[in-house]
Amino acid sequence: MPSDATFFCGPLEVTVEARSAILYEKILETVRLYDRVWASHERHIAIHALERTGSGSPALGTFLRCARIDVDAVESGLVASTIGGARARLVRSATSERWDLDIPPVLLTSGNLEDVEELVTLALTAGWRSAGWIPVHAAAVTDGERCVMICAPSGGGKSTLTAAFVRRGWLAVGDDKVLLRTNDGVAQIAALQRTFNLHPQTSTWFPEVGDLEALPLYSTWTQKRKVKIESVWTDPAADLASPTHILRVRRAATPGPIECTPMDSGAVLSTLLRQIAIPTERATANAILGCAGPTARRMRGFDVDVGENAYERADALDVLEAALR
Amino acid sequence: MLDHVASPDVPVLTLRTTISAAVLDEGAVLLDLESKYFYALNASAWAITQLFESGATLADVTERTREWGAPDDGGILNFVDRLREYGLLENGDGPSVEANIAWSGIWTAPSIERQAEPLQKVMVSAFDPSIPLAE
Q1: A101 touches chain B (CB under 8 A)
Q2: Does the beta carbon of B122 lie under 8 angstroms from any beta carbon of chain A?
Q3: Cα separation of A216 and A226, whole Å?
Q4: Cβ separation of B122 and A292 shorter than 8 Å?
Q5: Taking CA atoms, what residue in B is nearest to A286?
Q6: Do residue B18 and residue A282 have CB atoms under 8 angstroms apart?
Q7: What HEC string does chain B produce?
Q8: Residue contact B129–A277, C-beta within 8 A
């Protein structure tokens, strides 16, 4: 079995090397999530993973603190540790990044590989930022003139609303994760994935997606399934768009239609910032804020409340689309 | 109101190094990387805040803003009080440094608005800033 390979994740060229087949496959599983091919690749990341117990103290989370991982900034780059005992070190150069992962054997033998997924995600997000892009946990759709960012916590309804837009003829830039940057003062959103992550119950409202139960899980953390966009809708995707609107989606606890309420500018900025993992390191935060701030200023925002059975109605998006004009 | 701030003997104040900033068309946004609160400032508020980046006394700030057209109505001191209340300023070690900040146009009262809820300190993952659910 080959233990090294090259992949392309947005603007990154990623090489993976691991002697353990289990480790190798788990890393690839995460890397392959970001399968939208870009025309050029601006930065190289090398991920080297070893099955061994790392040395040194755990990270303190001075750069980033997540549920399963803490990250510190050091002179050469970053160091990270997970609650499962995995360690990672980034050494950064002007044009490339090398990550060394130490994965304790007990994680491989027990099959608890969530920490590997976390570390690879960390490596990719750091690489995207180095390439000048900001990872945003949001969906986005475009009709060629308008580009609507769709925001909600995990499980909050982004993917379903994105599917509803696509069914209406909008193009999906992404249903969960996109990249943002400003280029000559113009904000751009770029696609990373060719798949939607849909919960099996979505087929209730969108029967065209078919039986989702048979498809692979998107991640260990969710019941959502990975669905190739092109397998459901014709020409459904766009690679790049300039954001004009932002939606903050909330599930209503009761049956009803989709309702939308305009947001003020402070709420627009707040909504956008809450979709970005901002490290606690001034230079990195300055770069993120320097992009997100002006981007938010140029967007109109709406709070969108989605009734429990809203998508059963054929005209579900009428009010929302009218508000976006 | 921090009444001791009105005295010109207050030492040099500096913007804390944990404050991230981005300039906007009509002002700026600040993010306190420790508390995770962020703030929207209008143009005059941002001009004043920049004076503290290298260190300034209240007398320095009062003099500079007067040159910029600020009225002597206590508005500047009130604004600096707000910066201190929000924990955005700290006492500096060195002397004050005259900042190369220019102002043009009509002076308006400085304003700062703090967002009601801070950003998350702990997130689901490096890509997902959502608040983690309890396991």
Answers
A1: no
A2: yes
A3: 6
A4: no
A5: B20
A6: yes
A7: CCHHHHCCCCCCEEECCCEEEEEECCEEEEEECCCCCEEEEEHHHHHHHHHCCCCECHHHHHHHHHHCCCCCCCHHHHHHHHHHHCCCEEECCCCCCCCCCCCCCCCCCCCEEECCCCCCCCECCCCCCCCCCCC
A8: yes
Which residues does chain B have within 8 Å of residue A71's beta carbon, measured at their own beta carbons? 126
Q: Which residues of B touch A67 (CB under 8 A)?
A: 122-125, 132
Question: Is pLDDT above 50 for B39?
Answer: yes
| pLDDT tens-place string over residues A181-220 | 999 889 999 999 988 888 888 888 888 888 888 787 766 6
Distance CA A163, CA A203 (A): 11
Residues A137 and A246 sit within 8 Å (Cβ to Cβ): no
pLDDT of residue B6: 40
* Chain B, window 78-117: residues with a beta carbon less than 8 angstroms from a chain A beta carbon: 113, 115, 117
A187 Rama class: left (phi>0) / alpha (psi -120 to 50) / beta? beta
**Token match 């997970």: residue?**
A82
For A111-134, the pLDDT digits (tens) are 889 999 999 999 999 999 999 999
Q: Which amino acid is at A143?
A: D
Residue A233 has pLDDT above 50, yes or no: yes
Whether residues A71 and B33 touch (CB distance < 8 A) is answered with no
CA angle B40, B44, B46 (to 5 degrees): 50
CA–CA separation, A71 and A81 (whole Å): 7
Partner B contacted by A286 (CB < 8 A): yes
| Residue A236 CB burial class (10 angstroms; 0-12, 13-18, ≥19) | buried
Amino acid in the structure at residue A209: V
Is B39 an 8 Å CB contact of chain A? no
